[in-house]
Amino acid sequence: MFEHFTPQIYIEDVFALPVGFLKSKGIKALLLDLDNTLTVWHAEKVPQNILSLLRRWEEQGMKLCLLSNNRGKRVEHMAQLLGIAYVKNANKPSKGGYLRACEKLEVLPAQTAMVGDQLLTDVCGANRAGVYPVLVKPIAKREMRWTMYFSRNVEKLIMPRVMQNLKAAEKASALTYTDNSF
Question: Model-level pTM greater than 0.85?
Fold first, then answer.
């Protein structure tokens, strides 16, 4: 059960994303959560360092798409500011939004990573869609009430088991690599 909530990578923030490593895994596209991943919750502006980061990722050959559960015009506005494609009303953790984003970017789910701050939506949906899940720590504590009072409390309960799964997978991966390097 906890496999659905286990990311492949858990990092401090988007600036720590190992793009070279992801490319070595065949990843060609990044699906990006907006609130508390790229910007603070409900922001209307994009920090310059985020814009610069996205341009670097594009220079490294990554295709980018904003993937948000938000239904309003804000997603369109933010995608324009970011200069990237978008899928709004993604209904994460349903896999439909992930698949629409992959189709828009003309990549397969196996060639795609999802970068987001929530286990119950971003990571679970990515795993369900066959997309490589990357979990980042939330930028700030301010967020939607549902997220704050429900999702984050569930995350607190399951995070120890998720971290066990992640560490076990990292250990197995390291052993496999060591065993195959003659």
Answer: no
